[in-house]
Each structure stands twice: as C-alpha cells, then as structure tokens.
Write a structure and sequence with these properties.
The chain is an alpha/beta fold. The protein is built from 15 helices and 20 strands. The strands form 5 sheets. Strands 1, 2, 3, 6, 11, 12 and 13 form a 7-stranded mixed β-sheet that branches. A 7-stranded mixed β-sheet has the order 16-17-15-14-18-19-20. A two-stranded antiparallel ribbon has the order 4-5. It is globular.
C-alpha cells in the first residue's frame, strides 16, 4: 500500500531540498539538489531559475507516478527578498535577481525623502535600510535601470508564490512574504504602504497563507499551497506546542531572535540596532532582532586557533567549563577582549591580544562569554517592558554548543529554556500549514536542565 505524503520544496540560497512528510508530519524522504549559480543580464551572480523550475516539475512528475508514495499535497518555502516579474502572458521577464546585488543609493534615499524620512519610513515598514534586501527597492531599481522591461511588467510575485504559480498559474501574495523587511508593508495600518499605490504598482492583495488550489498532474489531483517565507515558516511549528508565550532563537550564520508576542511598535533606535519585523502565519508582526553570531564565532575562533597552532575546528573539542567562564567574568568584568567596546557594537577588534590567555580553552571561553553578552543584548531588544515570555527555544547550529546554551540559560533563569531538535523546521512549517496536522513538539525538545547547567 502506498504511503500518503506531502511534498515540500525548501529552496534556500545554498541548498535546495525536496522533503516528503507523512500524515503525522514525520520526514519519510529528503533529497538535496545543488545548482550552480549563473550570471544575470548585468553579469551578477543569481540562482538558475530555469534549472530550479525544471527540477520541481520533473520531481512532481516522478512522485505522481511513484509506486511507493501517494502524493497528496505540495507547498513551497523559500528565502525572502526576491521578486519575479511576469508579462501579460504570464511569462517571466527577468532572471531572479540576487538580493545582494548593489543598488544606487539615490533610489532608496529618494523613496525615504518622499515618505517622511528614512527613520520614519523604516519604522513604519519594519524594514531596516538594507538595499536590495528590501525587495520593494528591487522594483524601483528595475523601473530606473530597465524601463523597457518594467513597462512590460503585469504581475509582481515574491519567490514562494512564483514557484507555486509555475504549477497552478494562479497569482497570489500572502503576508509572510510581504512582511519580511520588504519595505512594502505599512505595519501601522496593516496594508501596503502608500508608496506602492503612488508608484502605480499592481501587487496582488494578500490572501491567507493556507490557501490551496487543486491541480491535476498526469491524471492525479493534487492540492498546491501558495508558498511561505522560510523564517515565518520555521516559526510555525512552535505555535502548536502549547508552551505559552515564547521566544525562538534560530542560530547559525545569523542568530535571529523572534518574539511573536511583542506587540510594541518598532522604534527608530531598535531599527538602528538591527531589529525588524517578520509576519507570522496568523498575520501578526513578529518582532525580531539579528546578530551575525555564526560569522563572528567562526572568524574569532580561527584567530584563536591560529595563535595556539590548532586546527580551525578545534573549538569543537573544548569541554564547557562554567567555573572557568565565571572566573573570566570576574577577571574581565565589562572589558571586551575580542570586540570593540560600546553598547551594541558588534565588530571584532582589528588586534586581539591573545597573550592575555594561557590556553586555547581559556581564550575560547572568554570569546563565548562576550558572544553570549552580545546575544543577550540582542534578545533583550525584543523582550517587551512588561515581560511575559515564559519559554525560550534555541534551534540551529548553536543548539549543540553546550557552553553557549549554559550561558544563555544562566542569563534567563526565570524562563524555561529548551533546545529544539526540529530538523527542516521551515519545511515542517510549510507542511503543517497545508495539512492541518499538529506535530508533537515535545518530542523534539530538550530542557537545558539536562545540559549540566
């Protein structure tokens, strides 16, 4: 008997995955596909959208004919800040431009000037000024730099909805894609910002993220989701756990701290400290802060390894020693050995005096003390004045770093702190939304009381 499954295409900047979930939302198959980047029409690197589309369609055709699986539904979760432009005939007009592509400064500055100034515009749209990472700026860039192409634009879709469109031919928008630092959404009025209308842009009105369309492929009827932004999707499973109000620390190259329960509006000061808002599946702002945690950790640990003549990954062998951390805190107090001094200053020093430390272990513990202080500062930016958060979930790469976990748990003794072993959280969220099934989150959690703290 065939196993009924939901297929999720999880499209990251680096990894593209096809993940199959059973009816209890357990992973039954995971395959990964690598695609070489190509050059866009300006010679800048971008994803090879034609190859991605071909892979999606071929994968679905294979699944429909599978002797092992009964494919029931399909959804998409992708990175944000990426737009696709369609003409009158529904054909894609451009490559999928890379959000790291440079943009002339006068384009966003002109928009800010016409809409109350940079601070007010960024506050209202909950979007720090990030160039092309604000996907709305990509539209203005296309209009300024490629007017002949822009004149042919009929529809503008965010990347998750475009991938769904390639299967359904349906035009949609939804709140998680619009609400992720796009500079398109007015969080004060919960609608498109007035500049969208003033520019005459024809953007689709958002619909619920659990919208489904029935499509027939090779005689088989499938339910197709409209896609979801990956950060919002990764948050979705935690709403099903029944653990009260929580924070999610999603760690990796970036540490993104998400608080779905902070209703305070973003301030200009918080935006300057790299705060922003995502949008939850319930169409509510998710106040968030960011720290370049993984990058800072990797860069500094390599410098420690070089000084002590150790391999770059030697830090993985360091045994967490809370007593050593405490001694170093008493010795150095607020002095920073690795980072520039000053609140919310997050740059490594150009010169780090490694002779302060007698061993790699001592230097690494001090690095983690300082990194955790920066992380705590970042977390505190999204904790409201009336702090009613009861639980913190830590997921991603640093959920395996015992020293990091112990230091965070020590800083938040009044809260329940868990590591989460949910893998493929973005894909799981995308599956959950279209299935209506709630995963048993408690099976994926580990209390930090078990880490030795």
């Amino acid at each position: 008997m065939k196993e009924t499954v939901i297929a999720i295409f999880d499209i990251g900047k680096t990894n593209k995955k096809l993940i199959l979930f059973d009816e209890e939302l357990r992973v039954v198959s995971e395959t990964e596909q690598k695609f070489s980047e190509i050059l866009d029409d300006d010679g800048f690197e971008c994803d090879d959208i034609e190859e991605i589309e071909k892979w999606i369609k071929e994968s679905l055709a294979t699944l429909v004919m599978s002797d092992k699986y009964n494919l029931k539904a399909v959804n998409f979760t992708t990175y944000g800040a990426t737009l696709v432009y369609l003409d009158d005939n529904g054909k894609r007009l451009t490559p999928v431009y890379n959000y790291l592509k440079p943009i002339e400064e006068y384009i966003p500055e002109g928009l800010y000037k016409r809409n109350g100034g940079r601070d007010e515009f960024c506050r209202k749209t909950a979007s720090p000024a990030l160039g092309m990472l604000n996907s709305g700026m990509q539209i203005l860039w296309l209009k300024k730099n490629k007017p002949e192409t822009f004149a042919r634009v009929k529809h503008i879709l965010h990347f998750p909805q475009y991938l769904s469109y390639t299967i359904t031919n349906k035009i949609y928008s939804e709140h998680t894609s619009i609400g992720c630092h796009t500079a398109l959404w007015d969080f004060d009025n919960m609608n498109y910002h007035k500049w969208v209308r003033n520019q005459g842009l024809n953007l689709p009105e958002p619909v619920p993220v659990d919208t489904l369309n029935e499509v027939e492929i090779s005689g088989k009827k499938l339910l197709i989701g409209i896609g979801i932004h990956d950060s919002s999707s990764s948050l979705a499973p935690y709403f099903s756990g029944g653990n009260g109000k929580f924070l999610l620390l999603s760690t990796g190259t970036w540490c993104i701290n998400m608080n779905p329960f902070n209703t305070e509006k973003l301030t200009a000061e918080q935006l300057d400290k790299d705060c922003l808002c995502y949008m939850s599946i319930a169409r509510q702002p998710v106040k968030s802060s960011r720290l370049f945690l993984g990058f800072l950790h990797e860069t500094a640990s390599k410098r420690i390894a070089e000084h002590f003549s150790k391999p770059d990954d030697y830090y993985k062998k360091v045994v967490a020693d809370i007593k050593l951390s405490s001694r170093l805190k008493l010795k150095y107090g607020n002095k920073k050995n690795f980072f520039q001094s000053g609140l919310y200053y997050r740059e490594l020093k150009e010169y780090i005096d490694m002779y302060e430390f007698s061993t790699f272990e001592e230097a690494y513990h001090q690095l983690m003390n300082e990194l955790c202080d920066l992380t705590i500062d970042s977390i505190n930016l999204v904790i409201p004045e009336n702090d009613d958060i009861t639980t913190i979930f830590i997921t991603g790469g640093f959920s395996k770093n015992i020293l990091f976990l112990n230091l965070i748990a020590e800083a938040y003794k009044a809260k329940l702190v868990y590591t989460s072993e949910i893998s493929n959280a973005s894909a799981l969220g995308a599956a959950l939304i279209i299935s209506g099934t709630k995963p048993d989150l408690n099976l994926c959690l580990t209390s930090l009381s078990n880490t030795g703290n």
